[in-house]
Design brief:
- With 134 residues, the chain is α/β, with parallel strands linked by helices.
- The chain has helices at 16-36, 78-91, 107-119, and strands at 58-63, 69-71, 74-75, 96-101, 125-128.
- It has a domain at 58-128: Nucleotidyltransferase, domain 5 (2-Layer Sandwich), CATH 3.30.420.270.
- The chain has a 5-stranded mixed β-sheet with strand order 3-2-1-4-5, with helices on one face.
- Strand 4, helix 3 and strand 5 form a beta-alpha-beta unit.
- The N and C termini lie far apart (90 Å).
C-alpha cells in the first residue's frame, strides 16, 4: 500500500545563500578592478580651466618621461604604433587619437608621434591634458 503525505510541502528556494554569494562577488570585483586598470605612470600637463580628457572612442597613445611610446598599456616602437593605428582606422574611418604626453617628456618625442600620425592621414589627433585648479 502506497502512503501519501497530506498537506502542503515547502518547495520554495531560499534566496539567502545566493544573496551572500552575489555580495561576496561584488566586493571582490570592487576591490580588484582598480588594481587591474593601473596603466602607465604619466603626469599630464596642466592646461587652463578646460582640458581634453580623451574619450572612449579614441585610440590612447602615451609618451612617458623617458620618451617611450605606449599604445594603451603596451610599450611599442613608434612605427609599430602607427601600423596598428592604421589597422584600427580600417575598421572605423572617423577614428580619433588622443596623445598623452608626460609633463617631463621630451616635447620632440610627443610632436614626433603627432607628426607621424598626421603624415599617414589621421586628422583628429588631440593632446590630452589635466585641468589646472589654481
Amino acid at each position: 500500500m502506497v502512503r501519501r503525505r497530506s498537506g502542503i510541502s515547502d518547495v520554495g528556494m531560499s534566496l539567502t545563500p545566493m544573496i551572500d554569494i552575489m555580495t561576496t562577488l561584488l566586493a571582490v570585483f570592487m576591490v580588484t578592478t582598480p588594481l587591474m586598470t593601473a596603466g602607465i605612470d604619466i603626469e599630464l600637463p596642466r592646461a587652463g580651466k578646460s582640458a581634453m580628457t580623451g574619450n572612449d572612442h579614441a585610440i590612447q597613445i602615451s609618451v612617458d618621461s623617458k620618451g617611450n611610446y605606449y599604445l594603451l598599456d603596451t610599450q611599442l616602437p613608434s612605427d609599430e604604433i602607427v601600423k596598428r593605428a592604421i589597422a584600427m582606422r580600417g575598421e572605423n574611418p572617423n577614428l580619433a587619437i588622443t596623445l598623452s604626453g608626460d609633463t617631463h617628456a621630451d616635447y620632440g618625442a610627443v610632436m614626433f608621434m603627432m607628426g607621424k600620425l598626421k603624415d599617414v592621414g589621421f586628422q583628429r589627433v588631440g593632446l590630452r591634458t589635466q585641468i589646472d585648479n589654481k
